[in-house]
User: Which sequence fits this backbone?
């Protein structure tokens, strides 16, 4: 049986695991965005917080994914549900590019523009939402784009703790020494990463300030 025949024969399971994969990636990216963008805004306006916040996000990136899953397993509420644990781990890994790009985007706004906004009587919150964020949105989306691609790849490892996703096929194929089963997980995961990269990249270009 060829790889394509295996996919066709097991299409129901492929679709199910793909949806599980999307669930893990989608939730973790959403949480990382809700946490990372405000943190990036904070460190852009209070530079003294820049080093500790970025250092913390960098340290998380250096922890091997399986080791992080292992560290979180004993936590009572998280360890009881593998999907919760996987979503938290993926959220932590996705924070760095979002925080860093938000910081870069906000700091990259021309000071003359912000001064002109203040001269027009805009408050700091109005300046943030009406001037800084619209001008930085394409840079921020670039960070989200990177975070999504990272999450799609790392979510395959979540199968090691029973969180589901396309990694189920990869680990099963490794145990069986069957390339067809490995490809049944690897190829859809790669396609998801490419589609996410293209989709967020298109949005990034559309929202780029002119």
Assistant:
């Amino acid at each position: 049986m060829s790889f394509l025949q295996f996919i066709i024969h097991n299409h129901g399971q492929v679709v199910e695991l793909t949806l599980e994969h999307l669930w893990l990636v989608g939730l973790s990216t959403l949480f990382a965005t809700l946490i990372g963008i405000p943190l990036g805004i904070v460190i852009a306006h209070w530079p003294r917080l820049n080093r500790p916040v970025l250092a913390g996000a960098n340290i998380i990136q250096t922890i091997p994914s399986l080791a992080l899953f292992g560290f979180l397993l004993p936590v009572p509420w998280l360890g009881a549900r593998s999907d919760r644990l996987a979503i938290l781990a993926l959220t932590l890994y996705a924070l760095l590019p979002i925080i860093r790009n938000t910081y870069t985007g906000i700091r990259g706004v021309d000071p003359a523009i912000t001064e002109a906004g203040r001269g027009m009587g805009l408050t700091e919150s109005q300046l943030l939402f009406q001037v800084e964020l619209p001008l930085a949105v394409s840079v921020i989306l670039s960070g989200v784009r990177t975070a999504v691609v990272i999450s799609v790849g790392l979510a395959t490892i979540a199968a090691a703790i029973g969180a589901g996703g396309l990694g189920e096929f990869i680990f099963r194929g490794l145990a069986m020494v069957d390339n067809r089963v490995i490809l049944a997980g690897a190829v859809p995961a790669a396609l998801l990463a490419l589609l996410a990269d293209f989709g967020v990249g298109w949005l990034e270009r559309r929202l780029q300030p002119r």
